[in-house]
Amino acid sequence: MTKLRVAHSIKDEESISQKHASKRITVGTLRLSALSVATAVSALGVSQVACAELTWGDEESYQQESNYQQDSSIDSFMAAAIAADRGDVSALYNYEQVMSGGLFAMYPTYWRMNLDLNSQSSAAVSQFVRQYPDTVMAEKLVADFAETKAGSNDYASVRQVANLITNADASERCAVALGFNNGGDTMRAMAAKSDVWLTTKKQPALCDQLAMEMNNNALISNQDRAARLKRMLRKGKTGDIMALSSRLGTPIAYSALSEIQLNPSSFFSRFGREPASQTNQYLYMYAIGRMADKSYREAALQLDFDIKQDNQRAVKLLNDETRRYAYRTLGVQRMNHNTDDGFNAEAVDWFRNSLDNDFNFEEAEDYAMAAIRFGRWDDVVEAISKMDGETQKEAQWQYWLARAYEQSSDSSKRNTSKKMYQNLAKSNDYYGLMAKDKIGQRFDASRLGGSNLPNVSTADRARVMQDANFARAFALYNSEASRAYANREWNWAVKQARDNRDDNLIIAAARQAYDMGWLDRAIYAVDNTDRVDSLALSHPMPHQSAVVRYSESAGIDPAWAYGIMRQESRFVSSARSNVGASGLMQVMPDTAKYIARNLGETYSASRANSGDTNIRYGTWYMGDILGKLNYQPVLATAGYNAGPNNAKRWQPVYGSLAADQYVESIAFPETRNYVKHVMENATIYSSLLGRGQPITQRMGTVPAGF
To answer: How far apart are CA 132 and CA 187, in angstroms?
Structure first.
């Protein structure tokens, strides 16, 4: 079963309720707890827990033994966390002594060093990593240190710790690359090129800095520079434009860019009298970008007019590359306005007018989505061909390539389409389920164990608590520490077990978490393995009686309710989003008031957030949205996430649209992925509930808006 992609790095992923929180956790709200590891293990029914032992000396290694039963360092964890929050270095030194040799020995040292990370030396950080190898806090400290030092331009320190970072996120990868780019190791710096060089989407500040500094990397060619310059002209990034154009030998002055920024129309009015220079090609792209920022429609009229005028000249002022990229700019900008202005096939036409061999991923993705929306299957094939080889192999684009080939009059392409569907159907993710329907297969939960929990041997159950990473995670879960600490340790433990290909350990840990009610981590464990399949763990059904009863009362499918709940909260009843949504169904306060009013109840925040009421409110609201959106579950799912009005705006104006085309063209990436996951979840839950319904039948067809 293909697993869900992980949105956050393993060491820093926090609970659903804190998904937008800062990377460095604030501990001011933590409360002191005296719950020991032994108490935690007793609650789990495990007789023997692991204990970590530090061996200090020449080797400075952190060695682990198989008996953690006497460990009590969790008793001091909360107090040390509070000391860290108030910046009490002296107290942290004391806790380092008190907690020495325990499972949580690394935490007071980490907190002390992290209070002023920029003042730490690479030697001290390296020593910490040697003392606590293969721990998430060692990984976090060295990665945070590299970011901090890169931000201070201390690249020598970055290089000294670079090889100790094993699970870098985007910003940390860029920090390491900056270190090498400024240390003469240009080849290692280029490892991050594909991530940062041509991207036009928002990225971490260090990645922006790396991309700019790569301009002077000896391995960057002028062809590379010209490709990036076009994107920067479209985005209007003045600093990059000036640096890149200068290296290309066609320097563009800030004054010229500033003048166009203030009044692009003035530039166009005099462009016909300007010489046919490369600098003017660049300035034209910049001007079209600035006009398109204000009005893609006005920019399109300007481009069409200029091309007609130019075609009458003996010597063209606009070369083919400039024309193509001007149309590309229009296509991208048009796709950014689909929610406000509705979809239009002109975006496909503009992308087709821009065809060459130089698309970045964002441009190719926009082209593909526009073509998918309007069933322009030849353009779908063209757009996917513009993506890099690895991206083309992803299930998403394999599915759409198969969909395009399926429409072909060429029998060989139709046969290829069937083979592609057969390959995709081996997985049970969104695209795998869609592919199953295409070749007449049926998803059967019983083949993956159904609702039967996996059997775990006594030996494997014991091994969970003999693993220091899992032992820390469970102890933290049973303490009053912020759940983010437990989640981080758990995610790291899963990664380590996965890297060791220890599936039995992952299954045993997930089963133990499930038995405790720690469902979100059980789900995480199964979703983040390649070979472990257990629907009982990955798709649990807590509160089943309430979910079924309230769903039927609201006139909705219980499987859909579970699909929403799994995606919204991972069954964490205390989940709270950064915008205030709460509970299992993540109901917003204003929505809860609306629901209570319609149910004739007095609104109470505490009651609305409670498990039973939250399920009742959430399922009622699902039914309410479903009724308002043509009883179309895909529309209603999009509406639950982005609001009913947005879901309506994305409907076709005329005729109907296949649901998969509607979903793939949803303008908000978050909502697009949300709908896919909910439909996948609901299909699996329908089989678990004995009411199996294929995903294509579930999704149906999206009607025209009214």
So the answer is: 30
